[in-house]
Every structure is written in structure tokens, then in C-alpha cells.
């Protein structure tokens, strides 16, 4: 429950300011737009992590939040192995 509250707070904070908006990169779930299927079973505000290797060979971990419209909002990106 604590994670859900923190995730919802993060989503609203990032949504309020486009200056903090992350743009999808190749490999991101939302790189070519939203997925064709909606996440109907996931509660609004729930976090979703996605790990992949980008075009430069770096391991990437992204966190998304499920919005009220059932779209995914990218809220953080971390390059694994970076200090």
C-alpha cells in the first residue's frame, strides 16, 4: 500500500510538470506509442517496471505508472551499472 501511495504521488508530480517528462527511447514500452492492449487488471496508480538493453548496449530499467485511462506513463529511467 505504501508503494502505491508513493507511486501515485510520483505520477502526479511528474504529470504536473512537462519539464520532468521522460521521452521514450528505443526499447521503452511506449516508444512507438501506447501498447495496443490496455492494462485492465492493474489498479490505477500501480507501478510497472520494464528492463531492457538499449541500442548502445546499456542495461536500462524504466518505471511506469498505470493512469486512469489505463495508459502507461513513464516516470523514471535508470541505467543499471551507473553510479
From TrEMBL:
Keywords, in A-Z order: Signal
Residues of the signal peptide = 1-21
The question of whether Signal is a record keyword is answered with: yes
Top-level division of the source organism's lineage: Bacteria
Q: What is the protein name stated in its UniProt record?
A: Uncharacterized protein
Amino acid at each position: 500500500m505504501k508503494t502505491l501511495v508513493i507511486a501515485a504521488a510520483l505520477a502526479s508530480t511528474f504529470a504536473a510538470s512537462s519539464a520532468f517528462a521522460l521521452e521514450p527511447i528505443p526499447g521503452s514500452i511506449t516508444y512507438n506509442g501506447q501498447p495496443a492492449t490496455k492494462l485492465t487488471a492493474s489498479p490505477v496508480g500501480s507501478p510497472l517496471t520494464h528492463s531492457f538493453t538499449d541500442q548502445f548496449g546499456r542495461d536500462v530499467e524504466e518505471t511506469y505508472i498505470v493512469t486512469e485511462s489505463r495508459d502507461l506513463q513513464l516516470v523514471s529511467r535508470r541505467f543499471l551499472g551507473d553510479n
